[in-house]
Specification:
By secondary structure, the protein is an alpha+beta fold. Helix content is 34%, strand content 22%. It is globular. This is FAD-binding domain-containing protein. InterPro entries: FAD-bd, FAD/NAD-bd_sf, FAD_mOase_fung.
Length: 493
């Protein structure tokens, strides 16, 4: 069976291997993106700026509805967003955050942290409701390139191409398959099963993801600034309350444009076995939301009780997620590659998960752009280069998120001691050094005009394009590409 979605799809029977010579073409690779999350949509936005054909396949059956939680982006990804012309739109629904207020459960002050990111990185750290960024990226993708109700069941790949099969019986053929389908990726599941059967899967990648924390999250309806002072300020008003020894909770809120508050309630599962078991076994519906959240309604906040914030949130806008974490070693094999949470699930920490997933998209777009000619060997090399360029930086950020989670959400004796030392004794220069470290990797796409460096902090150099070397003007580059394309065509023929 073939799909009706793509005129280039091929019969399954044609994918049983052959003795044909390797397939080589001067056309750019056709990219199949599985998953319309932030990483997949951002990759689509990048590919839309060049001549690489792509399509996005999402399992959701109807209008996409991202969770209404807060998101934070910083200099690690804002230059790339600026490159595609989306930074001004992003700033319309964002607020900068330059201070961070930490309190005890009884509203005693733990610390007030003041960031100096603009002078170091050239960018503010900005906060916004997650659906706003999602909708912005989605709006920039042509509708005909996104296919809903496409649940991936399996895929096959060989030297001729890759074919994906969906639950509706349709199939589609391409040159590269990108797993951007999140922490429980179907692409990764199928790929790892194949590699395990072939005894090629590392032992690390056979482990289950860790589940250390569970979180409720939501975004309120517009609030009255008179009753919620500071909520209408240009800078985000935020507060984090960390529970005492008898209450393994952390609750956080940030103001975003529209006089709204994004809020999270996080529980450390190892210290709340009974409660977490109740959470795990509860059906997930608005009625059970209310039942479970009744446990935390009395918690104090800078705006009264947490119950006041919950009451200002629509029931269907409340979500529950587990904070899982896992760094896989295998990101690519053959024509298949993983990005974002499918490759590395990080604990939430100042936007690290979203930023790293979008950075994946930038580096992968660069490597896809450099493929010339399109063949099995050049594709495998490009995907391996992507993984090699990203892995060490992601590994470092993965470790950082663990420490940040312990500081913010940890309630063991050791974690409380670490939090006290860091928030009260850590000198300012060490805090700035961490800001620099977190934002030193700021990749940009090689096929668009570069955003000039900003701030005083250094930037980790990224691998230059083999097709678009630096210091060449666009006209000369295009002429060289046309000449190289003609030469490659002649060589293939």
């Amino acid at each position: 069976m073939t799909t009706n979605d793509d005129k280039h799809s091929i019969p399954i029977s044609a994918f049983k291997g052959s003795d044909l010579p390797p397939y080589i073409t001067t056309d750019p690779p056709k990219v199949l993106i599985i998953g319309a999350g932030l990483s997949g949509l951002f990759l689509g936005n990048l590919l839309e700026k060049t001549n690489i054909p792509y399509e996005i396949f999402e399992r959701a059956p109807s209008k996409l509805r991202p969770m209404g939680s807060v998101m934070c982006l910083s200099a690690g990804i804002l230059p790339a967003i600026e490159q595609i012309g989306a930074l001004d739109d992003l700033m319309k629904f964002s607020k900068p955050t330059r201070t961070f207020n930490l309190y005890t459960a009884d509203m005693g002050t733990i610390a007030k942290l003041v960031a100096d990111e603009v002078s170091i990185t050239g960018y503010d750290r900005v906060l916004f409701a997650r659906p706003e960024l999602y909708n912005l990226l989605l709006s920039r993708i042509p509708r005909e390139k996104i296919h809903l109700s496409k649940k991936l069941m399996s895929f096959q790949q060989n030297h001729e191409g890759v074919m994906a099969r969906f639950s509706d019986g349709s199939t589609i053929h391409g040159d590269v398959l990108v797993g951007a389908d999140g922490a429980h990726s179907a692409v990764r599941h199928h790929l790892f099963k194949t590699l395990k059967d072939q005894n090629k899967l590392p032992a690390n990648d056979m482990r289950s993801m860790n589940k250390g924390y569970m979180c409720f999250l939501g975004t309120t309806n517009p609030l009255d600034p008179a009753k919620f002072p500071g909520i209408a300020d240009d800078e985000s008003c935020n507060a984090m309350n960390i529970g005492d020894k008898s209450s393994p909770y952390t609750w956080v809120m940030y103001s975003v444009p529209g006089n709204k508050l994004c809020w999270n309630v996080i529980v450390q599962l190892e210290l709340a076995a009974v409660e977490s078991e109740q959470f795990r076994n509860s059906e997930w519906a608005p009625e059970s939301n209310k039942r479970i959240l009744n446990h935390v309604r009395h918690f104090k906040t800078i705006y009264g009780t947490l119950g006041d914030i919950i009451d200002a949130t629509n029931d269907e806008g409340v979500n529950r997620v587990f904070f899982e974490d896992m760094l896989y070693e295998t990101w690519n094999h053959g024509r298949t590659v993983l990005i974002g949470d499918a490759a590395h699930k990080m604990l939430p920490s100042t936007g690290a998960g979203a930023i790293n997933g979008m950075q994946d998209a930038v580096i992968l777009a660069n490597r896809l752009y450099d493929i010339q000619p399109t063949s099995f060997e050049t594709i495998k090399t490009a995907l391996s280069d992507y993984r090699d360029e990203r892995f060490d930086n992601v590994k470092s950020q993965y470790s950082t998120t663990h420490m940040s989670a312990r500081l913010q959400f940890g309630h063991t004796i050791q974690e409380r001691i670490i939090r006290h030392v860091v928030f009260n004794w850590l000198p300012k220069w060490m805090q700035n050094r961490q800001v620099l470290k977190d934002n030193a990797f700021r990749p940009q796409v090689n096929f668009l005009p570069q955003v000039p460096p900003r701030g005083t902090g250094g930037i980790i150099p990224q691998r230059p394009s083999t097709r678009r070397p630096e210091n060449k003007d666009r006209d000369n580059i295009e002429k060289e590409e046309e000449s190289a394309s003609r030469a490659t065509t002649a060589a293939v023929l």
